[in-house]
Specification:
- With 297 residues, the chain is mostly helical.
- It contains 16 helices and no strands.
- Helix 1 runs parallel beside helix 7 and helix 5 runs antiparallel to helix 6.
């Protein structure tokens, strides 16, 4: 069988699975409401200050370890996170990894959506947040995802889900739930790229949430670099690298840049180790027009 035939056969199997899943959708909805796994994941994110498997997936992406990143995202997908199912899918699609668009993946995604729906009905904010991101994925016009997601969200009002997700996360953030602070800011930034999220990011950092600034803020800007400095102080490797780059490229402080690259390296970001070696602490001599002076022997 040719590669093209295999691909078509695999795609048809996936469509068959989606069709069958849609038939059983009503029966599944009749089951007793759950959502315990979503609640457990929410508690884990708070306990680990955001540095769960999905955090290490982003470290793996930065180090170009895409198979590892996919599996780490998928680990939380299996725990009921629609967000991490989608992250796994996008990594798989971009890097053409195996199984990212398989029937098994489709089953996991639908299970995650159903778990999130049950959790949201029980006022578990992370369940509502997951549904928010499921609706967001529909805007990508990806036919594979659309055929999986649509049967499981068509009975929800997307505007009501947005309002509920924002309301729950805001209330919980005020009560010192750092994960809710993070997702509230993230959703606001998706809805409005210029939304003021300072309170939520700052509170997340005050609560020790290491990934608090990762809410679609520009990484290299005078307005946000202090967030990443604080996140680096919480031992978040990617933030340390952003800060190092800032000192290296914008403030021309090679010594500080190297120290932040080294910290990022020690925290597990291998690509930062090379950056630390390449960063010279001795300013390079330049001529009158700013070109590097090459020493002649």
């Amino acid at each position: 069988m040719t590669k093209i035939s295999i691909s078509i056969f695999s795609f048809l199997l996936t469509l068959l699975f989606i069709a069958c899943a849609g038939v059983s959708h009503d029966k599944e909805n009749e089951k007793e409401s759950g959502g315990g796994e979503i609640t457990a994941l929410h508690e884990q994110m708070n306990a680990k200050h955001g540095m769960t498997a999905s955090y290490y997936a982003n470290i793996a992406i930065a180090d170009e370890e895409y198979d590892k990143a996919y599996m780490l995202h998928y680990q939380e997908c299996k725990a009921g996170s629609v967000i991490e199912c989608l992250n796994a899918y996008y990594i798989g699609e971009e890097r053409a990894l195996s199984n990212y668009d398989s029937a098994e993946f489709a089953r996991r995604l639908t299970e995650s959506i159903m778990q999130s729906g049950k959790a949201c009905k029980k006022n578990e904010s992370l369940g509502c947040v997951n549904l928010f991101f499921a609706f967001e994925a529909l805007d990508d016009n990806n036919e594979f995802l659309k055929q999986i997601i649509m049967p499981y969200v068509e009975n929800y009002n997307d505007e009501m889900i947005v309002d509920k997700a924002l309301s729950l996360t805001k209330k919980e953030c005020v009560k010192d739930d750092a994960t809710s602070c993070f997702f509230h800011a993230r959703m606001l930034r998706i809805i409005d790229h210029y939304a003021d999220v300072d309170y939520f990011v700052t509170k997340g950092l005050d609560l020790g949430y290491a990934i608090a600034p990762f809410v679609r803020l520009p990484m290299q800007s005078p307005q946000t670099i202090d967030y990443f400095k604080r996140s680096c102080a919480l031992n978040e490797a990617l933030s340390c690298r952003y800060v190092a780059y800032w000192f290296d490229k914008y403030e021309n402080n090679k010594a500080l840049a190297k120290s932040f690259y080294q910290k990022s390296c020690k925290l597990g970001l291998q690509s930062a180790c090379g950056d630390a070696r390449k960063t010279s602490t001795t300013p390079q001599e330049v001529d009158e027009v700013g070109a590097p002076v090459i020493k002649r022997r």
